[in-house]
TrEMBL record:
Protein name, entry field: Serine/threonine-protein kinase pkn1
Entry's EC annotation: 2.7.11.1
Keyword tRNA-binding: no
Pfam assignment, any one: FGE-sulfatase
InterPro entries found in the cross-reference section: CTDL_fold, Sulfatase_Mod_Factor_Kinase, SUMF_dom, SUMF_sf
GO MF annotations in UniProt: formylglycine-generating oxidase activity; protein serine/threonine kinase activity
Enzyme class: transferase
Lineage: Bacteria, Bacillati, Actinomycetota, Actinomycetes, Mycobacteriales
Xref: PANTHER family: FORMYLGLYCINE-GENERATING ENZYME, SULFATASE MODIFYING FACTOR 1, 2
Protein encoded by which gene: pkn1_1
Keyword entries, A-Z: Kinase, Transferase
Sulfatase-modifying factor enzyme-like domain: residues covered: 2-292
Length: 293
């Protein structure tokens, strides 16, 4: 069964932020047309239904062409994906390779992270490359959101707030989203992995998990600052368009919302305005999606 849709009226809102990371700038007015968005990210069970119906094979499950990695040992070029792995203690937070490892065989079917896939039916599906998300959306007769649509939905109708629920990450000590709670990347006093969709309160539009749990894919090609309507466009990957009609691994697209490994001392991207870049072929244990129409 597909996720139920929540219709949003569209309108004008302040997109981005001038108070946090440089790539969120400039804050500016942006308009979106009415649209409908899935109440929660696509779950493992829903993606399994898509695969059963179509026989689809995800990027993480595909064989790797040795010609693409001429210096690598062919014996090591096996299907797999990146899995977050907590460290034993404090590490240099400038080196992401301290807590990410390549796991042969990791995919949506075997996501790693300590929670068996048979216990993840109602968790967001992970290890999803852009092509995988687009294929599901096409099967569901839906589409992936633009960054503006996603951010408008994530704000839940609130304006001028760092978070959709206010200006504090944990108001009155309450956890509002599945983000890192403790010392990163070795002491997580929260879930430590994905959580079932809807574990945390909905935003003002009734949408859940717009913040935390998993990063969510958008169609926009990533550029290092917002392109404000009415100003000269910034070219992305050699093209002036922001919705490049390609799934080339070299293309970097916007992801939004942060994930369960976003931590105050490392990644404060658990906010509607926050944004990050992921290549089209990236498939990790904290990367998922939701659809719109």
């Amino acid at each position: 069964m597909l996720t139920d849709l929540i219709s949003l009226p569209g309108g004008s809102f302040t997109m981005g932020s001038d108070r946090h990371y440089p790539e969120e700038r400039p804050a500016h007015r942006r308009a979106v047309e009415p649209f409908a968005v899935e109440r929660h990210p696509v779950t493992t069970a829903q993606f399994a239904a898509f695969v059963e119906d179509t026989g689809y094979v995800t990027v993480a499950e595909e064989s790797i062409d040795p010609a693409d990695f001429p210096r690598a040992d062919p014996a090591e070029l096996v299907p797999g994906s990146l899995v977050f792995t907590p460290t034993d203690g404090p590490v240099d937070l400038r080196d992401w390779q301290q807590w990410w490892r390549w796991q042969p065989g990791a995919s949506w079917r075997d996501p790693g992270g300590g929670v068996p896939v048979d216990e993840r039916a109602d968790h967001p599906v992970v290890h999803i490359a852009y092509r995988d998300a687009a294929a599901y959306a096409d099967w569901a007769r839906r589409r992936l959101p633009t960054e503006a649509e996603w951010e408008y939905a994530a704000r839940g109708g609130a304006a001028g707030l760092d978070f959709a629920w206010g200006d504090e990450l944990r108001p009155d000590g309450l956890d509002m989203a599945n983000t890192w709670k403790g010392r990163f990347p070795y002491d997580n006093q929260g879930w430590g992995s994905t959580s079932p969709v809807g574990t945390y309160p909905p935003n003002g539009f009734g949408l859940v998990d717009m913040i935390g749990n998993v990063w969510e894919r958008c169609v926009d090609v990533y550029v290092p600052r917002h392109v404000v309507p009415g100003t000269p466009a910034v070219e992305a990957d050699g093209r002036p368009d922001l919705l490049a009609p390609t799934t080339s691994p070299r293309v970097m697209r916007v992801t939004k919302g942060g994930s369960h490994i976003c931590a105050p001392e490392y990644c404060r991207r658990y906010r509607p305005a926050a944004r990050s870049a992921q290549s089209d072929d990236s498939a990790t244990s904290h990367l998922g999606f939701r659809c719109v129409i």
